[in-house]
C-alpha cells in the first residue's frame, strides 16, 4: 500500500516491483491525484496492479484485514489529523511480519514531532526494526511484531 500516494511518484515503481501476481493499493484524499495516477499507471503498463482508493480528510478505515506485506507512509503522516487511528488501522491491515517504511520531510516536520508519531506507532503495536534506513531525513522501518 502506498498511503498518501498523490500522483504515484512511488506507486509506479512499487507496482513494477510487485508484478502481476500482486496488488498495490494507492490511497489519497484527493481524487484529482488518483485520476492522474491511474493515467500514469496505464502509461507505465501497471494499471492491472494498481487499485486506487479515496479516503476522507479525517481518515476513515479501509476494509482490509491482514492483507498487506508492505506499506509506504512517505511525507503524509504529518498531514493526517488522526495519526493514532492511522497507525492502528495500518497495523490491522498488515500481515504478521509486515513492514512499513515511515518517512517525513525534514523541512516540514520537527524531529520531536517525528518521534511523537513513532510513539503512536508503538502504541498501535509496531516495533522499530531499523532506525534511519536512509542516510538523510526522518525515516524508520516499522514491523508488525510476529510475536503479537
Ligand atoms: C506531500 S504529499 C506526498 C505524496 C507522496 N507520498 C510522495 O512522497 O510523493 C502528501 C499526500 O498525502 C495526501 N493526504 C493528506 N492527508 C491525507 C489523509 N488523511 N489520508 C490520505 N492521504 C492524505 C495528500 O493529498 C497528498 O497527496
What is the assembly state of the chains in this entry? single chain
Please count the beta strands (DSSP E, at least 2 residues each).
Answer: 7
Mean pLDDT equals 94
The percentage helix is: 25-40%
Q: Mind describing the biggest β-sheet?
A: 7 strands, mixed
Short characterization:
The chain has 148 residues and is an alpha/beta fold.
How would you describe what is shown here?
The chain has a 7-stranded mixed sheet, sandwiched between helices. With 148 residues, the chain is α/β, with parallel strands linked by helices. The protein is globular, with a radius of gyration of 15 Å. Helix content is 30%, strand content 29%. It contains 4 helices and 7 strands, in the order βαβαββαβαββ. The two termini are 22 Å apart. The model has no long low-confidence stretch (mean pLDDT 94).
List strands and helices in order, with pairings:
Layout lengths: L1 E2 L7 H8 L5 E5 L2 H13 L6 E5 L13 E7 L8 H11 E11 L6 H13 L2 E6 L6 E7 L4
Parallel strand pairs: 1-2, 1-4, 2-3, 4-5
Antiparallel strand pairs: 5-7, 6-7
Helix pairs in contact: 3-4
Bound molecules: S-adenosylmethionine.
The site of S-adenosylmethionine has 18 residues, from strand 2.
